[in-house]
Amino acid sequence: MMYLPQILFAIVLLASIGYFARNVSKLRRNITLGHDVDVSDNTSQRWKNMAMIALGQSKMVKRPIAGALHVIVYVGFVVINIEVLEIIIDGLAGTHRIFSPIGATYGVLIGIFEILAVLVFVAVVVFWLRRNTLKLKRFWANEMKGWPKDDANYILYFEMVLMGLFLTMNATDLEFQAMNSGNVISQFIAPWFSSFSESSIHIIERSAWWLHIVGILIFLNYLYFSKHLHILLAFPNTYYGRIKPQGQFENLEAVTSEVKMMMDPDADPYAAPEAGAEDEVPAKFGASDVQDLSWVNLLSAYTCTECGRCTSECPANQTGKKLSPRKIMMDTRDRLVEVGKNIDANNGEFKDDGKQLLDDYITKEELWACTSCNACVEACPVSIDPLNIIMQMRQYLVMEQSAAPMELNNMMTNIENNGAPWPYNQMDRLNWKNEA
Amino acid sequence: MSEQLNVPTMAEFMAAGKKPEVLFWVGCAGSFDDRAKKITKAFVKLLHRSKVEFAVLGTEESCTGDPAKRAGNEFLFQMQAVTNIEVLNAYEIKKIVTACPHCFNTIKNEYPGLGGSYEVMHHTQFLKSLLDEGRLTIEGGQFKGKRITFHDPCYLGRGNGVYEAPRELIRKLDAELVEMKSCKSRGLCCGAGGAQMFKDAEPGDKEVNIARTEQAIDVKPEIIAAGCPFCNTMMTDGVKNKEREADIAVMDIAELIANAQDL
Question: Where would I find the Cysteine-rich domain in this sequence (chain B) (predicted)?
Fold first, then answer.
């Protein structure tokens, strides 16, 4: 019987780590459904970006209030989790506060955790108020109805409860209070329990301890289903994010080879395809579904925290158009999750479900409203590039479906015929020098 | 001003067995759009004033393909790019300057991958370098003390990180440079990019150029300075829409400098 709590702890720990690992492998499988892109360049710049943007929160603080609050929660999360190491060792070994014999340092550490716990609690309450009471516009857009709104609030409640449990656990730990070192906050909570018997206090302490660690493990497993995946994926996403100037769009290689062939005066237009070439699936230009996007696009979709900074900076969205860069990312993730479930249900193979990212999730109207101004890319605190997805979908519309708006078709016909987007003769290009 | 501008072409340079210091890529707007042609001429005058030996491609120039690419037509873009690169490489062009941020971005960033690598400068960067080298002097003239706000073109600013060159030129005019609420890396688009220039906007409650013009009017400028022919059109339309064309002028930076010297 003596070992029962330890056995129970080991089972809970293993089960939650196991479930998490299973979901991580699904996540990986889903992300790699995207086509490959070469991201082996600029290694040192990439590490620098990750250090600055993810670790250093450099883009978060561009909006000072939300940025400062986020830094508190972020630092609190990272630092307080050092305590989880002790909790896990205690849980498995049946010890109690195994690191406490290290003396004064222990008190300092716990003291820091307690202060951070209070700061995180306050920050999370302010976050909740901003979302639900101040009703900041970016949290009340169309795409935030239902699950996205609930998801955000659940996480805030979760963090409030976890911080509360951590402080309660310390306040009701009589030995810890007797040490009188590091209980900078919990010493003021301890008196609330002074009327309780010693055994009741002990039960409260044990309950808080268990609920705290189980809460953390539930939180870990909640990530996979939540926008909160960003706490893990922000790191790879900022590493793999855009290195080139924002104005530079990729040149499609498949197109380059065809264009080169067309321009080559020695190419034989009647040449028979090489043996075996017929079997090749012709390249699809652009993207109509998630599998056509790159794995970096898909990683970004899972990384998106739905903060809406992109959408609030978007000129189309600001002027009432349907386009919302955040929705582009949320739709991409939703469709990817749907495709993933389809694959799971069909023994590892995707069965056509008659749906796709284009039209079923993202409409043409949204895609054509983009000015390609890069404001969304600049605004994203975790280096997501919604514009890249919009452009790939436009490529599909134009090159696979010839479905550009008529005015754009006119513009393109002009370029083809006379080398300018307007119907002016190329021979008149220098006429301006003679005009008064 | 009815005098004919001296605008040599690459073909003429080639025939004379010479090479210019820089190729001026005029662009479609700069060649055909009535408003943008004024910017082209102002810039040419500044090039002459600074004794820069330049040439244009003239009838051998063709659209860079930017609007086609942003509209999703990668084929057309690459056809244009490869054709232009053939011409540029045949003339052994090393350095290009253009007054259009879209041409600037496309040639600078998207042509190298297709075989065309050149040193490409936006005209504000080029004018700034002429100023630094002492080849160009800027006087305040009629713009001394005027309130000027600069609208960042997306493909110059965010797209390529060029924020300071145009601003330094404005400061040299002894003008009062005022910044809009959204500026530099957070500058609001004029609404023309991504091939929007060539189509009507999707349904919404406002045009993007009106929103941007309102931001400009908020800082009470006498002049809205632009560095892009498309932004220029959008802001000019915005000012007209607000019936403020009598007291707010929309001018390219090249025009400001040229006009200050009564060129």
Answer: 22-108, 148-235
